[in-house]
Design goal:
By secondary structure, the chain is an alpha/beta fold. It has a single domain, classed as Alpha-Beta Complex (Spore Coat Polysaccharide Biosynthesis Protein SpsA, Chain A), CATH 3.90.550. Strands 5-4-1-6-11 form a five-stranded mixed β-sheet. It is globular, with a radius of gyration of 18 Å. The structure holds cytidine-5'-triphosphate and magnesium ion.
């Protein structure tokens, strides 16, 4: 049983607005791709990491990854072009994994400080349960439903709500079948594009379990997140 990890890094990073795709932005001197790849290639047991990037940046990505390909490593690395939507990028990544990867972790490059312990927690739970597993954190703020003008309608009970993160883990066949189904079955009228893989699996009728998430798995979305991630990084010490 070896891991396949799909690192999705093919988004345009429009909300960050850094003038380049987010995954290629540096946090304290190192790109998000490098930070994620270092953590993933430190995981015990080895496997295959495929990094999904905008096609024109494939060469640059290989150069960034060269530092993680040493002869003694249990990890193989590859780069593959992404799609227009996140779920397309994931699908291309899963298709690029070798046969032996029977458990797949899908991770956003935009979560550069995610600790190795979270990857291990998710992978262990997938193996234990043979189900899909995602990291989740309780929602701490009071939640309100508002109308288009921002007028409050009501407070929403937050007890049954969680905020979810990546890496999300899946038995490989289950994830591949769910993505195939998404591609072949027309979505219900008004259905949005799925924003995570757990949603893809649920649309195919699969059960998704949760494990505790990590504050360090925070996603870089807007410029304010850069400040927050730098603070989290500095709080970790040298
Ligand atoms: N992603 C991807 N392919 C896409 C869209 C997103 O690989 N077509 C990846 C992003 O690179 C990111 C992760 O999915 O690591 C989460 O997506 P998001 O935070 O939305 O990143 P972007 O799409 O790059 O940002 P934005 O939506 O602001 O343009
Ligand atoms: Mg996006």
């Amino acid at each position: 049983a070896r891991l396949g990890v799909v690192l999705v890094a093919a988004g345009r990073g429009e909300r960050l607005g850094a003038g380049k795709p987010k995954a290629f932005v540096e946090l304290a001197g190192e790109t998000l791709i490098e930070r994620c790849a270092r953590t993933i290639t430190s995981l015990p047991g080895g496997g295959h990491l495929v990094v999904v990037v905008p096609e024109e940046l494939a060469g640059e990505t290989l150069a960034l990854l060269a530092q993680f390909t040493d002869a003694g490593s249990l990890w193989e690395l590859s780069v593959t072009p992404g799609g227009r939507e996140r779920h397309e990028s994931v699908r291309f990544g899963v298709d690029a994994l070798p046969e032996y990867a029977d458990v797949v972790l899908v991770h956003d490059a935009a979560r550069p400080l995610t600790p190795a312990a979270l990857f291990e927690r998710v992978a262990t739970e997938v193996r234990r349960t043979a189900a899909s597993v995602i990291p989740a954190l309780p929602v701490v703020d009071t939640l309100k439903r508002v109308d288009a003008n921002g007028v409050v309608h009501e407070t929403v009970d937050r007890a049954p709500l969680v905020a979810v993160q990546t890496p999300q883990g899946f038995p490989r066949e289950l994830l591949a079948a769910a993505h195939d189904r998404l591609g072949s079955v027309s979505a219900p009228v008004g259905a949005e594009q799925p924003t995570d893989d757990a949603e893809v699996v649920q649309r195919a009728g699969g059960t998704v379990l949760t494990v505790p998430g990590e504050a360090l798995a925070h996603k870089l979305t807007t410029p304010g997140d850069l400040t927050l991630l730098l603070a989290l990084l500095n709080a970790q010490g040298p």
